[in-house]
Design brief:
Blueprint: E1 20-23, E2 36-39, E3 47-49, E4 53-59, E5 62-66, E6 80-84, H1 86-104, E7 114-120, H2 125-135, E8 153-157, H3 162-172, E9 179-181, E10 198-200, H4 210-214, E11 219-224, H5 228-244, E12 248-250, E13 269-273, H6 276-288, E14 295-298, H7 314-317, E15 321-325, H8 333-338, H9 349-359, H10 385-388, H11 395-415, H12 423-429, E16 431-434, E17 437-440, E18 450-458, E19 464-473, E20 482-484, E21 511-515, E22 524-528, E23 533-534, E24 544-545, E25 550-552, E26 559-561, E27 563-565, H13 571-596, H14 601-605, H15 608-624, H16 634-667, H17 681-705, E28 709-713, E29 720-726, H18 730-753, H19 763-787, H20 791-822, H21 829-832
Parallel strand pairs: 4-7, 4-8, 8-9, 9-10, 11-12, 11-13, 13-14, 14-15, 27-29
Antiparallel strand pairs: 1-2, 3-7, 5-6, 15-18, 16-17, 18-19, 19-20, 21-22, 23-24, 25-26, 28-29
Family: Belongs to the G-protein coupled receptor 3 family.
Pfam family, one: NCD3G
Transmembrane segments: 572-596, 608-630, 642-666, 687-704, 731-754, 766-786, 798-821
C-alpha cells in the first residue's frame, strides 16, 4: 500500500493572500480550454529539501506579526512577521538535523529519503493556519503539480502553542495527515473525537497537580493565559484538586496585570499556566509593585525559560519550582547549529535575521537594514545562548523525537502486509528508543509522561540556575511516579522549609464569614450578603438588614433608597398615550363625518342622536386611559376607575338603547304593533340616563365608603417600591365591572335576537360583533389584571380600555363610514330597507 495515495490534494485556498485561482472558459464544440491554476501570491517555506516523503514543520520563528490591510479593493500584501526568535530557529534546525541523520542511516528507511518544508507561524493561529494550508501543496509553490497529482506530505511537526495546534490539527484532519506537536500540552487535545490525527511528544497538563498534593498545599492561587492552553489547564487542575478532597484553590483575579492583588491575598503559593512571552509583562508589573514572598509553581511552558535568569529576577522568582520537559542529548546539534551562517545561506532572510539578533549587525547590504554591516562569518559562541544553548535541550529534544517517531512509523508501515492499516494507526503502536528513552504513544495520542522537577536557585554570579531536584516517571506504579529530593530544594525567600499557605483569605465588606463544619475556625468561606442585607466591615460575622425603604447596593456594602416605579411616560407609557390620542382623534373624525352627512339616509335611519351619544362616550373612553399613566395621586386614583366605569356604562347604555330601537322598528311593521310609541326620543334618553345613573350611584358609594388611594407595594419585588392605586373596596371594584358586564351581556343577547331581521343594513349584526369583542377583551382582562405585577397592572387595564374602545368604534361605525364615503349610491332609504328596483 502506498501512503502517498492516502493524502488528497488541497486545490484552492481563498481565505489568505496565498490563493490559487482555477480559470476556465465556456466549453463549445469548437473550443475546449483546460483548467489552469494560477498562483496569486506566494508563501514560501523558510527551509525546504526534496525527498521521497515530505515532512512539514511549523515553528514560531517570529513572535509578532503585522496583518495587511484587507479592504477588498486591491490584492493584499503578505503578512509581515516581526520579532525574530533564535530559540525557535534552533528548534527548526533540530528538525533539519534529524531528517539528515535519518537519510544517512542504513537501518532506518534504507531505501527512502525524507524531505521537509519548514514554515513560520509567527506564534499566531491565523498565520499557523496559512502555513498548514501551504504545507499541503507541493515542494515549491511556484512549480507545484497542484492540478495533476496528490500531495507528497507525510506528516507535520508542530505547533508550539496549543491554540495554534488546535487550528492546524483541524485543517489537517480531513486529509488524515498526522500532526506531532513538540510543545502543546493543553489537555483539551486528548479528545480523539475532535483531534483524531493529533499526537505529541510532550505530556499534557493533568499530571502537574501532583506537585500540590505532594506538599499539602491546601490553598493556592492560579494565573493563566487567556487562551485554550490556560483555560483548559486550569479546568484540569480544578478537576483534579476537587477529586483529592483535600486541596482547595483560589483564583484571586491575577490575570489582570494592572490589578494585582497578590499583596493582600492569603494564597502564598501561585500556580501559573502561561507562556514566557505572556509572563514578561505580568512580571514587569509584579516587580514594580515590589511583591515578594510568593512561591511560584511553574508549568512546563516557562519553567526553563532562560529569559528570566538575570540577576534582577532572583528576588522575585527565586525558589520557583515546577515540572520541566525532560532534557535529552543530541550529540551533533552544537556542530550543526554552527554550520548555519549567512555565507552558506546568502539568500535566506531568516539566517540574516539570526545574525542581526545575535550580533546586532546586518550581513547583507541589500537587506535594507539600519544595522551596521558585518561579514557574516563571525563565530557562534556560548554567550549566544538564545541560539547555541545545547547543553540541556528540552523543546529541541522533543522536536528531535517527533521526527524520529515519524520515521519509525513509516519504517514500520513498510514492514506491514498490504491492507494492514495506515500511518495513523501505526503511530498508536510505534515504540522506539532514543538516547536511552523509550518513546511511544497511548490511545489518546500522548507520549509517556516524564518530567524533570526544576528548582530556581541562585548561581555563583547571582543569576538564576535551573537545578534538577527530582523527576516524574509515568511508567512507575500509581503513587510512586513523583520522586523529589526535598533537601536540595531552595524555596521562595531563600528558605529551606516548605512554605505554608493559609486556609482562608479575609472576607471583604459585602460578605460574611461562614465556618466550615468539621474544619478549624480559620477555615471559612466568604458568603455574600443576601439581598437587602449589608456588611461594611472586613471579616464581618453577620450581615444586617436595611431599613424598610432602603435596599442593599450591588456590592452589599451600603443601603441605598429603593427605586420607585410606576407607569410613567417611558416606552410603554408613550405607546399607550399615542394609541389613546389616536383613538380619540379617529372617534372625532367619525363624529365629523356623521355630522356632515347627518341628513343622509344611513345616519337618519340608525338614529343619529344615539350615534352621536356613542361617539361622545367613546371619545371619553379613549381619553380616560391617560389617567392611568403618571405618578399615582389621590385624585388620579379616584378618577381612574370611576372615569372608565361611567364612560363605558354611558357608551353601552347608548348601544342598548339603539338595540331596543332596532328591535322596536322591525316589530312595529307587524299588524297591530304599537311598540314604537314606547321608544320615542324621550324614552331613549330616559333609558340612557337611568342605566348610567346606576353606575353613578355605585361609584358615589365607592368613593364615599372606601375610595381608591395611592399605595406603596413592596411585597412583589423587595428591591423596589411600586407606586400603584389601591382599589380601596374590592367589592365596589368588582360591582363596577360586573354592572358593565351585565349591560354588555344584555345588549349582546338583544342584538343576537335581532341579527336576522330583514334589511340591507341590519345594525343588530354589528352590535352583536361589537359586544362579542367587548366581552372577550374584558374576560381576558380579569386574569391578566390579577396576575400582572406592579405597574404592569395599570398597563393591562389601560390596554383593555383601548382595545374594547377600538372594537366598539370599528364594529359600529366602520361599515357606515364605508358606505357614506366610498359607496354613496347605497346611502338611500330604499337600499337600506331592501326595496331597490331590480
Amino acid at each position: 500500500m502506498t501512503p502517498l495515495a492516502l493524502f488528497p490534494l488541497l486545490y484552492s485556498v481563498s481565505v489568505f493572500p496565498l490563493t490559487y485561482t482555477v480559470v476556465s472558459s465556456i466549453t463549445t464544440p469548437a473550443l475546449l480550454v483546460a483548467k489552469v491554476c494560477t498562483l496569486q501570491n506566494s508563501f514560501q517555506p523558510s527551509f525546504v529539501a526534496d525527498g521521497d516523503y515530505v515532512i512539514g514543520g511549523i515553528f514560531p520563528l517570529h513572535y509578532n506579526q503585522e496583518m495587511p490591510d484587507l479592504n477588498s479593493t486591491y490584492r493584499p500584501p503578505p503578512v509581515k512577521c516581526n520579532g525574530f526568535d533564535p530559540r525557535a530557529f534552533r528548534w527548526a534546525q533540530t528538525m533539519r538535523l534529524a531528517v539528515e541523520e535519518i537519510n544517512q542511516s542504513p537501518r532506518l528507511l534504507p531505501n527512502y529519503t525524507l524531505g521537509y518544508k519548514i514554515f513560520d507561524s509567527c506564534a499566531y493561529p491565523l498565520t499557523g493556519q496559512r502555513a498548514a494550508l501551504a504545507v499541503l501543496n507541493g515542494l515549491s509553490e511556484g512549480n507545484s503539480p497542484m492540478c495533476s497529482s496528490v500531495s507528497p506530505l507525510l506528516a507535520v511537526i508542530g505547533e508550539s502553542g496549543s491554540a495554534q495546534s488546535i487550528v492546524v490539527s483541524r485543517i489537517l484532519q480531513p486529509f488524515r495527515i498526522p500532526m506531532i506537536s513538540y510543545f502543546s500540552s493543553c489537555a483539551c487535545l486528548t479528545d480523539r473525537r475532535k483531534y483524531p490525527t493529533f499526537f505529541r511528544v510532550i505530556p499534557n497538563d493533568d499530571y502537574q497537580v501532583k506537585m500540590l498534593v505532594r506538599f499539602n498545599w491546601t490553598w493556592v492561587g492560579l494565573v493563566r493565559g487567556d487562551h485554550e492552553y490556560g483555560r483548559f489547564a486550569v479546568q484540569g487542575l480544578m478537576k483534579e484538586l476537587q477529586g483529592t478532597k483535600t486541596v482547595k484553590y483560589q483564583n484571586p483575579a491575577y490575570r489582570d496585570y494592572k490589578n494585582l492583588v497578590m499583596r493582600s491575598s492569603s494564597a502564598k503559593v501561585v500556580v501559573v499556566f502561561s507562556a514566557e512571552g505572556e509572563m514578561t509583562p505580568f512580571l514587569r508589573d509584579y516587580m514594580v509593585q515590589n511583591i515578594t514572598g510568593i512561591q511560584w509553581v511553574a508549568s512546563e511552558a516557562w519553567v526553563t525559560a532562560s529569559v528570566f535568569t538575570g540577576n534582577e529576577y532572583y528576588p522575585y522568582l527565586g525558589g520557583t519550582i515546577g515540572f520541566g520537559i525532560r532534557k535529552g542529548h543530541i550529540s551533533k546539534l552544537s556542530d550543526y547549529l554552527q554550520t548555519v551562517n549567512p555565507k552558506r545561506y546568502p539568500d535566506n532572510l531568516l539566517v540574516q535575521e539570526l545574525w542581526e539578533a545575535l550580533y546586532g549587525c546586518s550581513p547583507s547590504s541589500s537587506s535594507g537594514s539600519q544595522m551596521p554591516p558585518c561579514s557574516g562569518q563571525e563565530s557562534l559562541l556560548e554567550q549566544h545562548s538564545a541560539y547555541m544553548n545545547t547543553s540541556s535541550p528540552r523543546v529541541a529534544y522533543n522536536v528531535y523525537k517527533a521526527v524520529y517517531a515519524i520515521a519509525h512509523s513509516l519504517h514500520n508501515l513498510f514492514l506491514c502486509q498490504p491492507g494492514s492499516g495506515i500511518i495513523l494507526k501505526i503511530f498508536l503502536y510505534v515504540t522506539f528508543n532514543i538516547d536511552g528513552e523509550e518513546v511511544d504513544f497511548d490511545l489518546k495520542g500522548d507520549s509517556i509522561p516524564y518530567y524533570d522537577i526544576i528548582n530556581w536557585q541562585r548561581g555563583t554570579g547571582g543569576n538564576i540556575e535551573f537545578v534538577n531536584v527530582g523527576l516524574f516517571d509515568g511508567t512507575k506504579p500509581v503513587g510512586e511516579e513523583l520522586v523529589i529530593q526535598e533537601d536540595r530544594i531552595m524555596w521562595a525567600g531563600h528558605q529551606s522549609e516548605v512554605p505554608v499557605s493559609v486556609c482562608s483569605a479575609s472576607c471583604f465588606p459585602g460578605s460574611r464569614k461562614a465556618v466550615r463544619r468539621g474544619e478549624p475556625v480559620c477555615c471559612f468561606d466568604c458568603v455574600p450578603c443576601d439581598n437587602g442585607k449589608i456588611s461594611n466591615q472586613t471579616n464581618s460575622i453577620e450581615c444586617t438588614f436595611c431599613p424598610e425603604d432602603f435596599w442593599s447596593n450591588k456590592d452589599r456594602t451600603a443601603c441605598i433608597p429603593k427605586k420607585v416605579e410606576y407607569l410613567t411616560f417611558d416606552s410603554l407609557g408613550i405607546a399607550l398615550t399615542v394609541i389613546s390620542v389616536l383613538g380619540a382623534c379617529l372617534t372625532l373624525a367619525v363624529f365629523a363625518v356623521f355630522f356632515y352627512h347627518r341628513n343622509t339616509a344611513i345616519v337618519r335611519v340608525n338614529n343619529s342622536e344615539l350615534s352621536f351619544f356613542i361617539l361622545f362616550a367613546l371619545t371619553l373612553c379613549f381619553l380616560c386611559s391617560l389617567v392611568f399613566i403618571g405618578k399615582p395621586t389621590s385624585w388620579s386614583c379616584m378618577l381612574r376607575h370611576t372615569a372608565f366605569s361611567i364612560t363605558f356604562s354611558l357608551c353601552i347604555s347608548c348601544i342598548l338603547g339603539k338595540t331596543l330601537v332596532v328591535l322596536a322598528a322591525f316589530t312595529a311593521t307587524r299588524p297591530g304593533a304599537n311598540i314604537m310609541k314606547w321608544l320615542g326620543i324621550k324614552q331613549q334618553r330616559g333609558i340612557i340616563f337611568s342605566c348610567t345613573l346606576v353606575q353613578l350611584v355605585i361609584c358615589a358609594a365607592w368613593l364615599i365608603d372606601a375610595p381608591p388611594s395611592p399605595s406603596r407595594n413592596t411585597k412583589y419585588e423587595r428591591s423596589k417600591i411600586i407606586l400603584e392605586c389601591s382599589v380601596g373596596s374590592s367589592l365596589a371594584f368588582w360591582c363596577v365591572l360586573g354592572y358593565i358586564g351585565l349591560q354588555a351581556c344584555l345588549c349582546f343577547i338583544l342584538a343576537f335576537l335581532a341579527r336576522k331581521l330583514p334589511g340591507n343594513f341590519n345594525e343588530a349584526k354589528f352590535i352583536t360583533f361589537s359586544m362579542l369583542i367587548f366581552c372577550a377583551v374584558w374576560l381576558a382582562f380579569i386574569p391578566a389584571y390579577i396576575s400582572a405585577p406592579g405597574n404592569y397592572a395599570d398597563a393591562v387595564e389601560s390596554f383593555a380600555i383601548l382595545a374594547s374602545s377600538f372594537g366598539l368604534l370599528f364594529c359600529l361605525f366602520a361599515p357606515k363610514c364605508y358606505i357614506i364615503v366610498l359607496k354613496p349610491e347605497k346611502n338611500t332609504k330604499q337600499h337600506l330597507m331592501g326595496k331597490e328596483k331590480k
